[in-house]
Hints:
The chain is an alpha+beta fold. The chain has two domains: 2-92; 110-337, 2-Layer Sandwich (BirA Bifunctional Protein, domain 2). It is built from eleven helices and nine strands. The strands form two sheets. A seven-stranded mixed sheet has the order 1-4-5-9-8-7-6, sandwiched between helices. A hairpin with a 5-residue loop joins β6 and β7. The longest helix is centred in the first third of the chain and has 41 residues, at 52-92. The model has no long low-confidence stretch (mean pLDDT 85).
Amino acid sequence: MPETVLSNLEAAARERIRTAAGAEELERVRVEVLGRKGSLSEISKGLGKLPPEERAGAGRQLNAVKQALEAALQARQTEFEETAGKARLAAEWIDLTLPAPGPARGHLHPISRLQAEIEDVFTSLGFTVLDGPEVETEYHNFDALNIPRDHPARDMQDTFWLTGGSVLRTHTSPVQVRGMERFGPPLRIIAPGRVFRNEELDASHEHTFYQLEGMMVDRDVSVAHLVYFMKTLLTAVFKREVTVRLRPGFFPFVEPGFELDIHCLICGGQGCRVCKQSGWVEQIGCGLVHPNVLRMSGIDPEEWNGFAFGLGLTRLVMMRYAIDDVRYLQGGDLRFLNQF
C-alpha cells in the first residue's frame, strides 16, 4: 500500500514541479509535499502501523522519494534563478564602448515661445527689440510717463519699493522712455520683459508676470496706424480671427487712451474665472503718446507724435493655450511644462 501511494505522490509532485510558473508556485509545492504538515509527513506518521516486515522497505522508499523531490525542486529553482539572471542582464546591459547619454533636452517655456513669435512679427514690420533694467528709478517708472505723484499706482498696494527709492518696475513702459532718450525720433520699438506688482494672487493675477510694450514715434501717426498694428499682432498670436472691442481707457502716458479686449478664448465668451464671468479679457492698453511723455524725453510734440501699447504676455499665453490659472506658468511643475 505505501509503495503505491508514494509512487503516485512522487509522479504528481514531479509534474507540478515541472509545470510551476514561478518561484512562488514552486514554494507552495514544496510546503504541500515536503513541509512539516505536508503529504510525506502524513505518510511517515502511518509507517508505524505497518507490519514489521513491510516497515523497513516503506521507510527506504519514503526517503528515496523525499530526496528525489528535493533534488527536483532545487533543479527547478536553479532554472528560475538562471532565467531571472539572464533577464536582468539583458535589461541592465550597457555597452561601455558607446558614448555616455547626455542630459535630457529641455524646451522653451510657453511664454518664451510666444515672445519670440511676437518679436519676429514686429521686427518684420521694422521695429527694434529693446530691453531695460528690472530695478528702475522712480523717474523712469512713473515721472517720465506722466504718472503724477498722487497716482494710486505708486502706493505699496501696487508697487514693490526698494531701499533707496528704486522700484521693481511695474510695467515695461520705462523701456519706451529709455528708447526715446537714446535714439530719438523716428522710432519703432518693442520691449518685452518681466514686471512686478504687489498683487493678491488668484487665477488671473500674479505678483511676477510678463508684458510687452510697443511704440511708434513719427510724423502724422494716427489711431488708424495703432489699430492696424494691433490687428496684425492678434492675428499672428492666435492664428485666427478673434472678436475684439475697443473702449475708452485712461492711462497717464497716452491721450486719447483705449483698452482693447478680446472675447475670452477659454470659455468662448460664456463666462469663467479667467474672464471673471464677463466673457471678455483685457489684453492691450493703448493710445496716442501723451505730449508730456514726448516732451520729457526730449522730443518736440509739435513736430512728432506716435502711438504706444502694452499687453500682458502672460495673459496672451493663457488665451492661446487655454490655461485657466496663471499660477501654473511659474509654478515649476514639470508635469504642466512638459505639455508644451
